[in-house]
Amino acid sequence: MTGVSHRFPTRVIVPSYSGEVIVEVAYGGREQNHRSVISTDSSDRYHVHLESWDTSEWGARRLAYWCGNQGVLAKSLEDARASAAVTLAQVVGEELDI
Length: 98
Hints:
This protein is an alpha+beta fold and about 100 residues long. It has one domain (about 20-95). About 25% of the residues lie in helices and about 35% in strands. It contains two helices and five strands, in the order βββαββα. It has helices at about 60, 75-95; strands spanning about 20-30, 35-40, 45-55, 65, 70-75. Strands 1, 2, 3, 4 and 5 form a five-stranded antiparallel beta sheet that branches. The radius of gyration is 14 Å and the shape is globular. About 20% of the residues are buried.
């Protein structure tokens, strides 16, 4: 987890997961404060991670960062995209009270 001195979500911090290559990232939410990350590993398995922009340390330390790691496995890129879209929509929907 790398913190930065940006109060609002930033795309400067590129997601990384040990042993995985990032395939794509999608952002959602009112302030683009949630993102789904699709990655693949050496066994050609796809992983879907959900991250949120955390500002809980902003007041004390002026730090914010992407956090979370809901790792879901998918058999194909298409399945990973579908899972990422549903997961991100659920989080954004909850944020918007839909």
